[in-house]
Amino acid sequence: MDDAKNQWQYKVVDKREGSNDKNVNNEEQKESKVENGNKEASGNTTEEPIEIDIVNTLKWMIEILRSQIYIKIGLIAHPQTNLIVQDFPQAKLGIDVLMLIFEKISTFLKSEEKRTIQSIISDLQLNYVNQLKKSGNI
Description:
- The chain has 5 helices and no strands.
- The chain has 138 residues and is mostly helical.
- Helix 3 packs antiparallel against helix 4, helix 3 runs parallel beside helix 5 and helix 4 packs antiparallel against helix 5.
- The protein is elongated.
């Protein structure tokens, strides 16, 4: 039984500045405190700040537009109301804006990314026309 008690005993070491604990080097404590203070003051705990890239932001916007266009076409229910409501003028506007974004960033994209976005645009255009025909608006 004594062996079991000794197995779970912990040693508490005071690492605060000015501590009398001889196991801790005060210089190391000060350096650690300065490093941690600098990270906390900047609000950044990573080594390198993350740069916001406009092209990646626009690719993210393409995904947002894509989901909104599917909702406006009526292929996906609105997430808040759970209803399918078609709004073709808004869907067309979304597709047009998506095409403009693609036109502006295409020179910065790899060929695979270009094909992916072109595929997204084609899919949205086909679904737009199909849903427009089903609704009798064509």
